[in-house]
Amino acid sequence: ILSQRAAFAALETKTDNLEKFKLFAENNKLNLEKVENVFLESDMPVDFIDFLEKIARDCQVSFKVSSLTKQTDKEIWPAFLVQLSSLSSFSNFSRFLEKLGSGNYLIEVQTLTVRRLSEAEAKSPQFEGWSVGDVQAEFSFKVYTK
Fold this sequence. Notes:
Layout: H1 2-27, H2 29-37, H3 46-59, E1 62-70, E2 79-88, H4 90-101, E3 107-116, H5 119-123, E4 135-144
Antiparallel strand pairs: 1-2, 2-4, 3-4
Helix pairs in contact: 3-4
InterPro entries: Transl_elong_EF1B/ribsomal_bS6
């Protein structure tokens, strides 16, 4: 009889926990949907590239994706590793980073190198249209996927 009471008590506890979870899920449905939406579709990174192009255009940042690689199965969380190079004024680059970080995707910056253009670089044909003080940035980040 004691073992049956213990089993019944354990079952009641599990039932209570399940009901609490159902209530939690119902009360937080919108938040749970938002969490689901921060993960990039692993087979459709096109939306993310469109997002990058839009914020770059809005912030007047010239950028080039040098690499977009799906992470191996060794990682705990699936992700794409993105490597970018960009050219812009420092303030525009700062706005670009801010919009990237506050966008709809879960990202983790891995590396970031920013340097000002020298006078000689600004005069070279490679940097035509840019001026001394503008910045060239190289960075990589992970975009987590579903």
